Amino acid sequence: MKSIRIGTRNSALALWQAREVARHLQNNNYLTEIVPIVSSGDKNLTQPLYSLGITGVFTRDLDVALLNDEIDIAVHSLKDVPTQLPEKLELIAYLERDYPQDVLIRKEESRNKEFHELKLATSSLRRRAFWLKYYPDATFSDIRGNIQTRLQKLEEGDFDATILSLAGIKRMKMSIDYEMLPLMISAPSQGVITVAGHSDKKEINEIVSQINHKKTQICVEMERNFLRTLEGGCTAPIGAYAELIENQIRFKAALCSLDGKNCISLDENFVYNETENFGEKFAKVVLENGGKELMAEIKNKL
């Protein structure tokens, strides 16, 4: 069989992720070739994501390349992937989740400030809303770009700190100080690399499915079903994190208003079985307890 063409965004982190998928496939004795593609999300670094008006802003160009047979598979950060995939495309493998957490990175001169005093740079509606829940007087600046760009903007900009995904920092082996943020619930499927494929390419999909991490798949599908049922797309302030230990799952999730004043939270422990759609079940609990009105309010304001 000829080498498997792996499509990826061309940022340093995305290329690392593609190489990680290639490594897993090579360990199974398959040849690979990495094909970098510039995404629309990387071209527009000025507007916050939620204002671009498209879901899958970081995945769309790779979707097109898959549909046009320019690549065989596409590698994504799973939290960038919309819950509704284009026709003929499917997720065929998930690598083991490493670091799901959000972390705080401060400027040197803001080291001694209390959390409530920090001016934060983040364009994420989830991070803003969850922060406002605890620190209602906080002020924010928009910030976009890859990790290196954001850290540079942090040094140059008029703010004290930013919030980043720990996975990116660890994967890039960056030696920077960070603080854990227990107050944050991660974005659904944060910290997971996924592989998308074309449903007609049965042989390649079968090969790639061999590198799937089942435990991670169970957790992220639950988180994504929760998100899909709330109709959150990639922008509403929704956090969801499932952790599977033996056959027990702990599922933490929350939907917050944009100003953080109204949050509907869940923290459930239960025995997993594969017949029940737990993500959908818990999302319906949220919707029935004020979530429906809250989602309508959020959509109205965006």
UniProtKB/TrEMBL annotation:
Sequence ranges assigned to domain Porphobilinogen deaminase C-terminal in this UniProt record: 218-284
EC number assigned by the record: 2.5.1.61
SUPFAM superfamilies: Periplasmic binding protein-like II, Porphobilinogen deaminase (hydroxymethylbilane synthase), C-terminal domain
Known cofactor(s): dipyrromethane
Enzyme class: transferase
One record GO biological process: heme biosynthetic process
Keywords, comma-separated and alphabetical: Porphyrin biosynthesis, Transferase
A Pfam family the protein falls into: Porphobil_deam
Sequence ranges assigned to domain Porphobilinogen deaminase N-terminal in this UniProt record: 4-205
Catalyses which reaction(s): 4 porphobilinogen + H2O = hydroxymethylbilane + 4 NH4(+)
Pathway(s) annotated for this protein in UniProt: Porphyrin-containing compound metabolism; protoporphyrin-IX biosynthesis; coproporphyrinogen-III from 5-aminolevulinate: step 2/4
Coiled coil: none
GO molecular function: hydroxymethylbilane synthase activity
One cellular component (GO) term of this entry: cytoplasm
The keyword Transferase is assigned to this record: yes
Family classification: Belongs to the HMBS family.
Subunit structure: Monomer.
Function, in words: Tetrapolymerization of the monopyrrole PBG into the hydroxymethylbilane pre-uroporphyrinogen in several discrete steps.
Protein name as annotated: Hydroxymethylbilane synthase
Annotated source species: Chryseobacterium daecheongense
